Amino acid sequence: MIPRPTPTSGNPGAPMNPEDVLLPETIKVGLKTKLIGQLICHYQTVESTNDTAKELAREGAPHGTVVLAERQTAGKGRLGRTWESAFGLGMWGSLILRPDLPPESIPPLGLIIALEVAEAIYLETALTALIRWPNDLLLGGKKVCGVLVETESEGLRVRAVVAGFGINVNHSFEDFSEDLRMTATSLRLCARRKVSRAPLLRVFLSAIEPSYELFLREGLLPFLPRLRDRSAVLGRGVSVETPQGRRRGKAIDLDEQGRLLVRDQNGCTEALSIGQVKILR
Ligand code: BTN
Q: Closest by alpha carbon to 164, among 222, 90, 62, 217?
């Protein structure tokens, strides 16, 4: 078993605006979900909330459990990248889901998580974040949120899905490493004010519950109009690094499996399921 830090109980120390503290009892005030966020585990420091969530899921944590940390020492991004997770500045969290679906049906969930984070950001800050396929959120062309969905399978069945979300909330420019300063931003930088994390998380958790249930019933189809509206890539020239090599062309649509349809200069359209998109024009 991976040694785990003990969850925070009570006030972790520094006096703060209570709405900016991610303590379970604060978040649960006014949270009207049935299952999502009914168990919240908050830590001061973990390596990665996704890894802690996977460990908790193996130990039987129920559907809807949320794992939060003030800091991650080994935050993970998609495609083997790292995720910078400074203390207290962001929302570093993972949601445990237990869908009765085959593993191949899971990837579109990342798009839905990104969509509902974007909606929560809008409701809390009036900022319109766009989705850079598959699930990065951009504000002013810079990344404000990343989503990492990991699936724990047992043969042909999903045992648990861990949906990790990293939102840069209260970073100033200098809080990002020099490497990230040109490509990353935070809600505070864009809204020009500090943003409280607890209400943002509450709005996100409240939205994700009905969306998850709709996804189980009807798949990605009912989400496609909202995903298209919020897309940063559709209609744009893109270069996509995929495991099969680089693809260049125009991003023309998303399909029901959440794949990005890219039409090249010869008019051939390819459906991409994984990759890193660069927006060209
Ligand atoms: C990406 O943009 O490549 C995905 C970044 C996902 C970061 C979040 S932070 C909380 C959760 N725990 C992790 O280790 N990663 C995700």
A: 90
